[in-house]
Amino acid sequence: MEGNKNAKEKKDKLTDQIMQNPQVLAALQERLDSVSQTPSGYIEMLPKAVKRRINALKQLQEKCAHIEAKFYEEVHELERKYAALYEPLFENRREIVTGNVEPTDAECEWHSDAEDEDKLAADVKNKVTLSEKEDPEAENTKGIPDFWLTIFRNVDMINISLQEYDEPILRHLEDVKVKFSDPCQQMAFTLEFHFGPNDFFTNSVLTKTYKMKSEPDSTDPFSFEGPEIVDCEGCTIYWKKGKNITVKTIKKKQKHKGRGTVRTITKHVPKDSFFNFFSPVKVSGESEEMDEDTENSLAADFELGHFFRERIVPRAVLYFTGAAIEDEESFEEGEEGEEEEMEGEEEVEEEEDEPGNIKKEPAQPAECKQQ
Questions:
Q1: If I label 276, which of 76, 127, 210, 256 is the partner at 20 to 30 A Cα–Cα?
Q2: Which Pfam families match (predicted)?
Q3: Structure confidence by residue, pLDDT tens digits, 19-58
Q4: pTM for the whole thing?
Q5: CA torsion sign, 298 to 299 to 300 to 302?
């Protein structure tokens, strides 16, 4: 017993000596600070009673996620309601674009804020008017030619898939509409591409339906941020004979090893085209894992579907004139300018910290977040 007592006294004395060492205390404090600054580390240090209450808050948060899901369902109902109000305006837009209706002088009045246009000399205006009158083709132009084709060219997200042989078909595109699912159906929206008579396919309307989900994931309810597209369906394009631009025909000759006879095999190979938009990659079952290329393809498809629905269809004329594109580019350039300025400041600080060893480090790219 006496030996154990002496050992304990020596141990306590050694502990006191260690704890009185400033370097040891600083190291311990630094370790505690690093643990407390980490959310998971801080939570682990809390008493069991507090952890129990945090679990109760998580349950409340999960209930909030389900209420938020209901909120977005009602937002979808509002979208459907207001779509009916927009419909006459969009129908009038189609009639003007196709040339079925000529707008009145009052409807054509538009007062631009651009100073250059306001200061245009009267004689220049007269020359422009005269040149238009002298051009019989300009006088006979119907509607707004290549309205949707121009929009597709202006939007990088679409233009990237646009091929030269797509354009003659898209000249017949008269309208793009968004249709929302009925209340009794799964939350979804359908893009309708209305075409005039053409030499390429017999469809008058091509469709792409995006199915959505507005409910928290049972395995990760806190990741819910609103409705998300979970699948999409295209449509069958009834191409006229020899007009299918989404495939190309390849002929190969094969020689029989034994008989030496030669035969020709014809294969149909997929070809890049905007019209592949209507033959999307299918979402695999939950048990199947998608490869990275498939996931990226689906993500790009879903993003484009949202862009058609939220930006292109409601603001078509602004993408036709390029005004919407200019606004987006101006916003992006502003952000980049701020980042470059900050990077420059960092370089100066590095040089001032080490005056004896002047070494200019290359600017590091700023981190960016994907929306």
A1: 76
A2: NAP
A3: 566 666 666 566 656 555 666 777 888 888 888 888 899 8
A4: 0.69
A5: positive
